[in-house]
Amino acid sequence: MDLFKLIKLEYRKNNIGKYVRNAVILALLLAAFIFALAFLGIANDPDGKLDAAPGNNVLSAPVEMFTSMVFLIFTSVMLSTFIVSAYKNKTMILMFSYPIKRQKILASQMLAVWIFNFAALTLTKLIIYLCAAAVAHFREPSFLLDYNIGSVSFYVQMILKSAVIVSMSFIALFIGLAMKSSKATIVSSFLLVFLTQANVGDYTMADSAVLPVVLIVVSLGFAFLSVCSAEKKDLI
User: Fold this and answer.
1) How many Å apart are CA 195 and CA 190, to the nearest integer?
2) What's the predicted TM-score (pTM) here?
3) Segments making up each domain of the chain, as ranges
4) Which of 125, 109, 132 shows the shortest CA–CA distance to 69?
5) Where are the alpha helices (H) located in the chain, listed in sequence order?
6) Residues 6+ apart with CB under 8 A from 3
7) How confident is residue 48, by pLDDT bands cut at 50, 70 and 90?
8) Mean pLDDT of 8-14
9) Are residues 39 and 142 in contact, defined by beta-carbon separation less than 8 angstroms?
10) 168: Cβ–Cβ under 8 A, 6 or more apart, which residues?
11) Phi and psi for 44 in degrees, rounded to 5?
């Protein structure tokens, strides 16, 4: 069985429809929240000035921060359900009974979650950016629109940032598998959110040019370790 068929099987087995519904709800809530921040003045002080840290007076700052936080946690929840819970509930026994290498099965589960959330995160950000640009023609935003939707670099950066955020969930997965706990996977995702999005004074790691490269390398390293250990890992 090829990898594509295994991914489709994972989607059917885990009822992907409910995750599509949840992703749509998250996207709508995020869009509404960003709209309120940018156009309804809820991010402003009583005197009408934007209450934001220096360098965060641009629209991309809240869009990237809140979408990254939400979908990093959402991806980790899906990974805990698709993989960690499958070990705990012994449903992985059935999967491992197939004449397919364990590494390939685990890789298909990880890819199924990664592909879904990468697409969901990218589309969510694209919709928010497009809507904000459209509304800005009729209403003055609180934040500066620091992007050009007609620029190729805008789409390249958006895709790369989405790939980094979703890939970070593999770190949480590795911790969850090591601790044999779905809760550990989810808690680890919250810790990753604090690490990558929190501010220390005027400095935030989200602004680092080196951090995304480091995170993607570390995330892929943890993904590799998780897949490689599947053949020797006992069922939880």
Assistant:
1) 9
2) 0.86
3) 3-229
4) 125
5) 3-13, 16-39, 60-79, 85-88, 91-96, 102-135, 152-179, 182-197, 211-228
6) 104, 107, 108, 111
7) low
8) 90
9) yes
10) 72, 192, 196, 215, 219
11) -95, 150
